Each structure stands twice: as C-alpha cells, then as structure tokens.
Amino acid sequence: MDEKVLTRHFGVEGLFRIEVYRGLGGYEAVEKALKEMSPSAVLEEVKKASLRGRGGAGFPAGMKWSFVPQNVPKPRYLCVNADEGEPGTFKDRYLMSHNPHLLLEGTILASYAVGIRSAFIYIRGEYEAVARRLEAAIAEAYGNGFLGEKILGTEFSLEVVVHRGAGAYICGEETALLESLEGKRGHPRLKPPFPASVGLFQCPTVINNVETLSNIPSIVLNGADWFIKKGLPKDGGTRVFGVSGMVRKPGIYELPLGTPLRTIIFDHAGGMKDGKELKAVIPGGMSAPILTADEIDLPMDFDSLAGAGSMLGSAAVIVIDKGTSILDVLGAMTKFYSHESCGQCTPCRIGTSWIRKIAKRLAGGEGEPDDIDAIIRLAGNIKGKTLCPLGDAAALPILSICRKFRSEMEGYIPHA
Amino acid sequence: MALLRRRIDEVAARYPKKGAALLPVLHLVQRETGCLSEEEEVFVARALGLKPMKVREVVTFYTMFLRRPVGKYHLQVCSNLSCSLLGSGPLLEYLQRKLGVGAGETTADGRFTLSTVECLGACEQAPCLMVNFDYYGQLDREKIDTILEDLE
Q1: pLDDT tens digits along A68-81
Q2: pLDDT value at position B1?
Q3: For chain B, which residues make up each domain, given as ranges?
Q4: Which CATH superfamily is domain B73-151 in?
Q5: pLDDT value at position A2?
Q6: What are the counts of helices (DSSP H) followed by strands (DSSP E) for chain B?
Q7: Which residues of B fall within a CB distance of 8 Å from A166?
Q8: Can you list the alpha helix ranges (DSSP code H) found in A238-345?
C-alpha cells in the first residue's frame, strides 16, 4: 500500500497543470465539501484528524481555525505561510512546484471552513520561479471555476493573491509575516491578541503552513480516521522530511509520523556519504536542539522529539559527520541568527551577535577559558526574554551544543 | 515611468490597503531600475501614498532590496549549515580568487557581484548558489567554471 498522501503523484509528468491534477482526482474534495458538507462539518473533520501544523510549532490546525470568531463584522483572512526560511527546510518548495493545485485546494477548503473570502500566499522572495508556478496554477483555478465568485455555483467566493517576501527569516514567524504583508518591516507583534482575533489589517486571520494546508483535501475526501491511520492518534498523517548534509541521497521523504530517525537517515537517505561517520543530527530545522549519534533511535513525531529535549519543527533533518568541527556548526548557526534577528528585542539583537563573536574567536583558536560559560550565560539570557520564538530558536540549539559537545569545544581553547 | 506607474496601480489593486503592496511594488521597481536609491523610494512612496521614510524602513530591512547597484550577475553563495557541511566555504574562496573580488564586492567590469546568503531553501542540492533568480546546486569547481562560462 502506498502510504504517501502529499507526494504520491510526484512522478506524474505535468502534475502542476490543472487537467493532469484533475485527472488524478484533484478538486474532488472541493466538490464534495462545497456540495455536500457545511463549513462546520469540514472544520470538525479536520479537528478530528489531529492534523498538527507543519511549519514548526505543531499547533493543531482545526483548533486554530475554531478560534476565529464568526460573529464580528470584519473580513476574515487566510495567510498561507510559504516563507520556508528555516535552515535545512525545502519541503514546501517541492510541494508548491510539483503540486501547486493541492495547496490551492487546501486553501479553498480552509477558507470555506472558516468563512474566508480572501487568501494571501506569502512566499519567500527567493522562490521567484515557484511563485510564478503558483500564479499560473491560480489562473487555471480561476479559469476552471474553483476560485473567484460563486465557486461551483455556490454562494462561496474566494480570491487568492501570491505575495513575495524579500529575504527575511523572521517573516516566517506568523505575526512578522502579517506585518510584512501589510507592507512593513517584519517585526513580530506582541501576543495576545492572537492573529485568530486580531491579524491581518486588524481582522481575524488564519495562518497555516503550505504542508498543513496540502493535507486538507485528503482529510475531506477520506475522513479523519483514515488520516490518523497514516500517522499517530495524536499526530495524524505523514510528514515530508527533508534530509540534507552528509548523506548519500539528500532529498524529501514523505513518511508516516513516528518513523525512526535512524531509518530516515540510513534507509531512506542512503546512509552516510563517502563512508563518513555520523556525529550529530539536527532533527527539525536549525532551531531544533542537536542530537548526538547515540540519540537517533527516536520516533520522529512531535511528542517523542519534545521528550528528547529537541523538536520536530519543520522536519528538516541535517546530518553532520565526524569530520566536521562542532565549532563550524556553531559558527553557521550563530552567523545565521545574528543576521536574522529583527532587532526589536535587545536580548536577541545583542545576545546573538555577542555569541557569534565568541564562536568566531573559538573557531580561530583564540578562545578564552570562560568562553563556553559566557555563551551559556548569554543564550540563557535570550531564552524566554523575547517577543517572538526567534530568541528561543537561537538559544536552545546553541545551549544544546554547549551541553553535548562541551569537551570538544574545550579542546579548541588554548590553555595558558 | 508611466507604464511602471500603471503596473504599480494594478498590483496595489489586489490589496485592501494600498500600502500593503509595498513589497511587491519594490520588487517590480527594482527589476526595472536595478536598485532602490532615494529617487526610487520617493517614487514608490508617491505611488502608494506613503511617507518616503516608511519606504526607507522597509528597503533597509529586507536583504533582497538593494540600495546600490550590483553587477549584471549577482552570485549569492549559500553559507548556511547544509551547504557549508558540503564545502560552500572552499567554493566561495574559489570564486573570490577566480573573480578577484571579496564577498560583497563587484568586479571592475561590473559583470559580477559576489555575496554570501543565508539558507536558500535548496539544502538537498548543497552546496548551492543563486545567480540573479536562478538556482544552481551540487556545485564543485568544474560546475562553477561552466556556469561562469555560460554567463560570459
């Protein structure tokens, strides 16, 4: 049995064209929902399916939708988060370029369930070619009556606009995304209020990741029970893992949630490249605390990763070999976060750049005995002290490196 | 400029508030002019009914908006983790030697600007590079030579 949900038809030539997509059963979920189901029935089915957000935080999608107030006299918006900036993550690029109509179908279904008439796809600026493909798919969907006024002859109408970002990791954070979409700097907002009640243009807003929305059509067609069987009871469906780094076959692998990390690296991704030895794995995008080679017998689902002190995040697995110095890993990490800190919160703005300077000094062989503790102190003062999760996203993996690879780091410090 | 102005109005019409079109409009203008100097900032501000300083705030926040012109080909080498694990550092040095410029610099003939960039979202193709908007992956020296030759 083919267990894939999202990438099942990736081998079909021209899948990105609406006639090919429809030939494989595409848009049947929209037909079913609009003609046979009420919006609340769609919402309930998604709730029952235990679909957790695929962007990183893992928040249950159906619950997010249910927070949107239905009784306020304001428009409601859907923002598709296609910013995909988390280092190691490239799954949404595949989903959008291979199967753009699946995302559009999910977008239509989510909008129907929540009573939304206007959706924006916020895509990172570098994905220019992908944005063009989405725009072509949207034009096809309008042409076939799946977008626009009175979809399939019902009272439901929806407009979708592709909006390109311009190179800022922070805009993947949902409230920064909203600011950016309003034409401002991507500075995260203080929560509460949450976007479900006060979001885009101060109106109720749903923000969902590309992969999250791409799962909706199959839930509507096959039901919540079917979806849960693809994954775990509290964590339904598959996950599109992106494997990169020192492996033989880097790429995306759609597998059931709960697939062991070892299996992903050594079976699916072909094991270590060039006979190298495994040193460490970052299991869920750069913001996920690092795991050592001894910690990879772990089911890849939200709760198991959290239990191991890390996180599933965006399911981006970065494989690090023994030939790589841990200081190179720390260097790439601290360079990234100091560059991408938006600058609003002092602990993050100053802390990440100080840690970067210390990491650079250590890598240059000029580390001082107190440097590792200084990094730990600084990271500890970022953690939990910022408006948005970027602070923790920087601090936690840095702290995990200092804890798990301390003796290696000490080895690089010249002793007096 | 009249044509550009019309395209700006078309883009702005997609948004409930005109100012929300700022990012797409800046992309549009930068494509025409190559970079966003004060002149373009004021032009965009007028077109969208914004204060020029609001436009400056945005231009200076996002790395893809360029305040100075770049070469005909903008080579951006990913320096993030997956790419550096697979040798983007030595490839950057190779490009620096080959072009005779450092990261952030433009060749004297104005053809190439070399930069480093954070994760491009193409980690399975590491080490990777973006030339203007085109992605190139699984790079090695020979591949870089070929890419540059094809750009000549």
Answers
A1: 999 999 999 999 99
A2: 76
A3: 2-61, 73-151
A4: Glutaredoxin (3.40.30.10)
A5: 63
A6: 7, 5
A7: 23, 26-27, 62-65
A8: 261-263, 302-307, 326-340
Beta bridge partners of B113: B74, B106
Which positions in chain B touch A130 (Cβ < 8 Å)? none
CATH number of A18-229, picked from 3.30.450.40, 3.40.50.11540, 3.30.70.3270, 2.40.37.10: 3.40.50.11540
Residue B88 and residue B77 in contact, taking contact as beta carbons nearer than 8 Å: yes
Q: How far is B149 from chain A (nearest CA, A)?
A: 23
Minimal C-alpha gap between A114 and chain B (Å): 19
Interface confidence, given as ipTM, is: 0.97
Q: Look up residue A256 and give its amino acid.
A: P
Q: How confident is the model at residue A144 (pLDDT cuts 50, 70, 90)?
A: very high
Q: Which residue of A lies nearest to B28 if distances are taken between CA atoms? A: A164
Do residues A120 and A181 make contact, with C-beta atoms less than 8 angstroms apart?
yes
In terms of Cβ atoms closer than 10 Å to its own Cβ (0-12, 13-18, 19+), residue A150 is exposed
- A1, pLDDT greater than 80: no
Query: For residue A189, how far is the Cα from the chain centroid?
Result: 19
Q: Are A271 and A75 in contact (CB under 8 A)?
A: no
Task: Compute the count of residue pairs across chains A and B with CB atoms less than 8 Å apart.
Answer: 141
Mean pLDDT computed over A170-188: 98
Q: Is the pTM of this model over 0.80?
A: yes
| Residues in chain B within 8 Å Cβ distance of A184 | 22, 54, 57-58
pLDDT digits (tens, 9 = 90+) for A348-364: 999 999 999 999 999 99
Instruction: Find how far residue A67's CA is from the centre of its chain.
Output: 21
Helices H, strands E: what count in chain A? 18, 9
Task: Please tell us whether the domain made up of B2-61 is placed in CATH 1.10.10.
Answer: yes
The Cα–Cα gap between A294 and B74 comes to 42
